[in-house]
Amino acid sequence: MTIRPLLLCCTVLLLAGCGGVDPNSPMGKRQAIFKQMLKTSENLGGMLRGRVRFDEQDFRAQAQQLEQLSRQPWQHFPAVRDEGDTAAKAEVWQRQERFQELANALQARTGELAQASQAQPLTPAAVKPAQARVEAACKACHQEFRSH
């Protein structure tokens, strides 16, 4: 009698693992980086919108982290479209020049944010415009190259 629930549990766990993305695949690596970027950007935006207490040191550190992260996911877009459940539209591979242009724009905007975060003393007003440009760069790429 006790073996049946154990078998059911094992079956459920095995089936749940079948649909996941391999974390070592290009798609898995870029998804992990994009998730880190989203979390970091949300933290920064939260500080600027009053949802989280503004902390100069934490803002600086996260702005630097976002700049570093913004340079990482692009290497994990293989030359040919990868199979699987990806939010990337086929246009990523069909319009590489434009995709790279938007990736470079994001990197430039995160660099500007990191630079603006070096102001002493650091105030939300000093970095709000730079954060808004980062968010606009993300949105521009998502509108053209992300399916959902």
UniProtKB/TrEMBL annotation:
SUPFAM superfamilies: Cytochromes
Record keywords, A-Z: Electron transport, Heme, Iron, Metal-binding, Signal, Transport
GO CC annotation, single: periplasmic space
GO BP: any one term: electron transport chain
Keyword Heme found: yes
Extent of the signal sequence: 1-16
Annotated coiled-coil segments of the chain: none
InterPro entries from the UniProt entry: Cyt_c/b562, Cyt_c_II, Cyt_c_prime
Entry annotated with the keyword Electron transport: yes
GO molecular function: electron transfer activity; heme binding; iron ion binding
Family annotation (Pfam families): Cytochrom_C_2
PTM annotation: Binds 1 heme group per subunit.
Residues at which heme c binds: 138, 141-142
Protein name per the record: Cytochrome c556
Native species: Pseudomonas pohangensis
